[in-house]
UniProtKB/TrEMBL annotation:
<dbReference type="InterPro" id="IPR000914">
    <property type="entry name" value="SBP_5_dom"/>
</dbReference>
<dbReference type="GO" id="GO:1904680">
    <property type="term" value="F:peptide transmembrane transporter activity"/>
</dbReference>
<dbReference type="Pfam" id="PF00496">
    <property type="entry name" value="SBP_bac_5"/>
</dbReference>
<dbReference type="InterPro" id="IPR039424">
    <property type="entry name" value="SBP_5"/>
</dbReference>
<keyword id="KW-0732">Signal</keyword>
<protein>
    <submittedName>
        <fullName>ABC transporter substrate-binding protein</fullName>
    </submittedName>
</protein>
<keyword id="KW-0813">Transport</keyword>
<comment type="similarity">
    <text>Belongs to the bacterial solute-binding protein 5 family.</text>
</comment>
<feature type="domain" description="Solute-binding protein family 5">
    <location>
        <begin position="1"/>
        <end position="260"/>
    </location>
</feature>
<dbReference type="GO" id="GO:0015833">
    <property type="term" value="P:peptide transport"/>
</dbReference>
């Protein structure tokens, strides 16, 4: 029994996701290391037969399975007796294995190869990710980014439609809010995301940033340059960032990209990195915003703990009130009122560029697969994760 001291509308949709999957009570008696190595008992239609770190996983059918979700297309145990998952880092190797008939599924094909695979008769399984789209997260310890004019100029200088048409393609369209359209509570605030290079330059002119000899703006001896810290990302995301760099240069803004998995947190905390590319999977928009956009939770908006922005959230907005909106919606039981509060919050976040949405995304880590023509019954969960319960293959 779970008891709350106040209303919590986001609990039920979150409960329906794999993030709160049911485990046997005995599993909680094990250490984290044991569970991390596959020593647990779940409640799904497959059981973990074996797990070899850095090599793969074997799932075996749960023969007595009889409790599928309402989204399932058949009752009882899965049709497939066993699923073997191999860990293969290189996208090209995964794609070639599918084309050669050596595997039935290939995870996360590149945009270009995915189109080719589909033309060859293979299937593509994906669902637009619920939650927060690929966005620029801003390190607001940086004096330049504390200026709302600079943040707005950076957002206006980005041509999201050009990135969509030239790089990411139909499966990853230009963002229209700080939430993706498949997320509960989503509101379209795309009027604040329109590309307007003239407006970007006007904002920077009025803020006192003058164009230097190399085309990069300068103010009080500070060049308008930002370092973007990057974890591993798919190739199309790296390509999108390259185009973005070229776009913002038109407003006299320089962005450098540095990939640094191990040292990313430190460079963010000490202020040497000012931007970070991030997306987040959430079923409910209420929780997605509450976890980051209240005065109490604002520092977690950096997604790297330990950053002190020095001021409360509302000080970075034009009109204030954002923290109260987000705090109110998380406990509001009336669905229409909650949706209105969420819509107002999304508008403030995007209008004042507290986060700069770029493009919506499929879950490249778990939710985009190419499948052989003989494979059927695949679907994606609310969180864009692959569901294997209904999978079956042609005989032969």
């Amino acid at each position: 029994v779970v008891t709350f001291s106040r209303p919590n509308p986001s609990f039920l949709p979150t409960l329906a996701t794999g993030q709160l999957a049911i485990l046997a009570p005995s599993s909680f008696d094990l250490s984290y290391e044991q569970r991390d190595n596959g020593e647990f008992i779940g409640s799904g239609s497959f059981v973990l037969e074996s797990y070899t770190p850095n090599e793969g996983i074997v799932l075996a059918r749960r023969e007595d399975y009889a409790w599928p979700s309402g989204a399932a297309t058949h009752e009882g145990a899965p049709s497939i007796e066993r699923v073997t998952i191999s860990f293969v880092d290189e996208q090209s190797v995964r794609e070639s294995a599918l084309q050669a008939g050596e595997t039935d599924l290939a995870q996360n094909p590149t945009t270009q190869v995915a189109d080719q695979l589909e033309a060859e008769g293979n299937g593509l399984i994906f669902r637009a990710q619920s939650g927060i789209p690929y966005s620029l997260v801003l390190n607001l310890t940086d004096p330049a980014l504390q200026d709302i004019a600079v943040r707005r100029a950076l957002s206006r200088a980005i041509d999201r439609q050009a990135i969509f048409e030239g790089v990411t393609g139909a499966r990853q369209p230009a963002s229209t809010s700080v939430l993706t359209p498949s997320t509960t509570g989503y509101a379209d605030v795309s009027e604040h995301l329109v590309h307007d290079l003239d407006e970007a330059n006007r904002l920077l002119d009025e803020a006192g940033w003058t164009t230097g000899d190399d085309g990069i703006r300068v103010k009080d001896g500070r060049r308008l340059t930002f370092e973007l810290i990057l974890w591993w990302e798919p190739q199309e995301v790296s390509d999108a960032l390259q185009l973005l760099k070229e776009q913002v240069a038109g407003a006299g803004i320089e962005i450098t990209v540095r990939e640094d998995i191990g040292g990313a947190g430190g460079s963010w905390r000490d202020g040497t990195s000012q931007l970070h590319l991030n997306n987040a999977t959430r079923a409910a928009g209420e929780l997605a915003l509450y976890s980051q956009y209240t005065n109490d939770n604002f520092e977690s908006a950096s997604l790297i703990e330990g950053v002190d922005f020095g001021r409360p959230l509302d000080d970075f907005t034009e009109s204030g009130g954002l923290s109260d909106l987000v705090t109110a919606q998380i406990t509001e039981p009336d669905e229409e009122v909650r949706a209105q509060l969420l819509a107002e919050a999304q508008e403030i976040i995007v209008r004042d560029a507290l986060r700069i949405p770029l493009f919506d995304n499929i879950n490249s880590e778990s939710g985009f697969f190419a499948s052989a023509p003989t494979v059927h019954g695949l679907r994606s969960s609310t969180l864009s994760e692959l569901v294997l319960h209904d999978i079956w293959k042609d005989e032969g």
